[in-house]
Amino acid sequence: MEIVYVYTKKRNEFGRQCNFSDRSAELHVDILPDPSLAVNFIERDPCDVPIQCTQEMSEHEVNTERFESDTRGINHVEGGWPKDVNPHEMEQTIRFRKKVEKDENYISTVMQLGNNMEHCIKQNNAIDIYREYFEEEEVVEESEVQPSAKTINVFRDPNEVKRTASSLSWHPDGSRKLAVAYSSLEFQKVSKDMSLNSYIWDIENPNKPEMTLKPVSPLVCLEYNPKDCHILVGGSYNGQIAYWDTRKGSQPVEMSTIEHSHRDPVYRVIWLQSKTGTDTFSASTDGQVLWWDIRKMSEPTERLILDPNKKGNLDNALGAISLEFETTMPTKFMVGTEQGLVVSCNRKAKTPAEKIVCMYSGHHGPIYALQRNPFFPKNFLTVADWTARIWSEDIKESSIMWTKYHTAYLSDGSWSPVRPSVFFTIKMDGTLDVWDFLFKQNDPTLSVKVCDEALNSLRVQDNGHFLACGSQLGTVTLLEISSGLCTLQKNEKALATAMFERETKREKILEARHREMRLKERSRSEQSKEEDTKEGDGEESPEELITRIEKDFYEIVEAELKKRDKGEEKKAIIELPLESDI
Amino acid sequence: MAEVEETLKRIQTHEGVIGTIVVNAEGIPIRTTLDNSTTVQYAGLLHQLTMKARSTVRDIDPQNDLTFLRIRSKKHEIMVAPDKEYMLIVIQNPSE
């Protein structure tokens, strides 16, 4: 039974002052005890009642309301005219002015003020009172300012259901805006009320995004066109590519057709250097790298399948997670795969087999970030599993430098655009690490805990001073790096060059040595093969391989055990003489 | 009358002077060498600022009074000579 009391008020009475009046108590409902209902209940005996003898305390939280600010302008209009003068009538205003000018008071005042004013004007013209008299010397470098990173602004996902900020892109002109792609990358965690929108934020206004982008499927990656600051291209979760023009609204201008797009989420899309400025290429875990011209999105212009056997077989293909393209080397590009290999490719090759030039292995997990050093394009940074590694293009066997293994997974990384030896990495425990390889190689120079949840994406602004990182709950934090980490130190380029060369040489020597050892091994095993009876030539089938390995393993174990037994026997033998001595 | 003209013209021809405005106590521009919208803006804003400056000076010392107000900005210098009924505003580009 519902206890309801209905208040009615006429519409024309809204807004009126409330007049309260006293009323005596009225009994609305009286429920009498009904013993027959007791049959439905059992008496509970014993009852557990917890008692605690402590001070009663209560916790309160207060959060002020969000301060929404808006920018307005004021337009000044003429006023102050006496009642009889209409400010729009030229005649009346002129007449008024002439009248005032005839006034005695006016004349004497203006004369006097004029004198004062002239004095000051002449003063201004005679001496520049703000001139620097002592030329200041070069500012002495601040002594050992501790490197620090300060959070400037935090942009939160306005929707109820939080999604990961999977990709960030700065506006190419002056970096006043930041485009963030939101999607949920966890398998099957997509809920029905999850919004599909991605936003463009103005960094001064963290309360409300400046613009919304409405794709058909959530965007996993998003990039501004470096040539045209109004165009953005995005790769979505269902494999389609779409592009937006911010002047034309929130809907994509054009989308690629589903049949010709990727079969898996598009993890990275990059703009290419071309005369028209409309070429992009995209990579996805379905093993394909597709080239598009945004004017014609119905079909990709080119297609590359990342088959390590170079046969173009989609089943063998490695899934691509990151792409790298440097505008100074337009024919080469690199792809980071889910399997931990970096594939270096040449765009201009004639056959698909020649497109894949070489592969670099060394990581244990998917390569989330891949970037060439902006100052030394031969060296590139890869971020995967628990380490970040620096590679040299010439050394294919291993990386030339690497960080130690961390406790948390690294999810993204980037070089600093202003300092050749500084790079940033972010981890799944929410920390941002700034590494300065010239200063310290074992530990990050600066480690900042940005938030409690995992960080997923990182983008440094072009001036190297600011960076934005996006987290799993859609919070994008804008940080300012202390000036020590973003100003080029003297000699830095030379020192960095020396360091890279030194490490590259070291790896080359190691590689040469490995090759020698392998050659020796091979020649030795070939010799032993000739001595033994002919074994099965060519490759053994997997089962034979397994049995052979098992046999070897057991032989080794047996040998070891025998050695140990012999050792014990020897000990026993040694002990006997001792006893006999006694 | 002619002296007023002469004075104002002399001020205007000094080196670096961009504009001259004479405003009355109600904020109505009596004489100006700039265009109307700029004049109205300067007149309105500087009138209020001058009043505020004057009240500040008098609050600190009631015997004191504001004689001249100079505002230097990056681009130019605004000089205001206030009086009881009228105000003379000159915008000048200083020697640099």
Automatic annotation (TrEMBL), chain A:
Keywords: Cell projection, Cilium, Cytoplasm, Cytoskeleton, Dynein, Microtubule, Motor protein, Repeat, WD repeat. The keyword Repeat applies. Gene3D superfamilies: YVTN repeat-like/Quinoprotein amine dehydrogenase. One of its GO terms (molecular function) is dynein heavy chain binding. Residues 512-536 have a biased composition (Basic and acidic residues). SMART domains: WD40 (SM00320). Residues 512-547 are annotated as: Disordered. GO terms for biological process: cilium movement; outer dynein arm assembly. InterPro entries: Dynein_IC, WD40/YVTN_repeat-like_dom_sf, WD40_repeat_dom_sf, WD40_rpt. It is found in: Cytoplasm, Cytoskeleton, Cilium axoneme. GO terms for cellular component: microtubule; outer dynein arm. Belongs to the dynein intermediate chain family. This is Dynein, axonemal, intermediate chain 2b. It comes from Esox lucius.
UniProtKB/TrEMBL annotation, chain B:
Residues 4-92 form the Roadblock/LAMTOR2 domain. The keyword Cell division does not apply. SUPFAM superfamilies: Roadblock/LC7 domain (SSF103196). The keyword Cytoplasm applies. One of its GO terms (molecular function) is dynein intermediate chain binding. GO terms for biological process: microtubule-based movement. It is found in: Cytoplasm, Cytoskeleton. Keywords: Cytoplasm, Cytoskeleton, Dynein, Microtubule, Motor protein, Transport. GO terms for cellular component: cytoplasm; cytoplasmic dynein complex; microtubule. Its main location: cytoplasm. Pfam families: Robl_LC7. Acts as one of several non-catalytic accessory components of the cytoplasmic dynein 1 complex that are thought to be involved in linking dynein to cargos and to adapter proteins that regulate dynein function. Cytoplasmic dynein 1 acts as a motor for the intracellular retrograde motility of vesicles and organelles along microtubules. Belongs to the GAMAD family. This is Dynein light chain roadblock. The lineage of its organism: Eukaryota, Metazoa, Chordata, Craniata, Vertebrata. The gene is DLRB2.
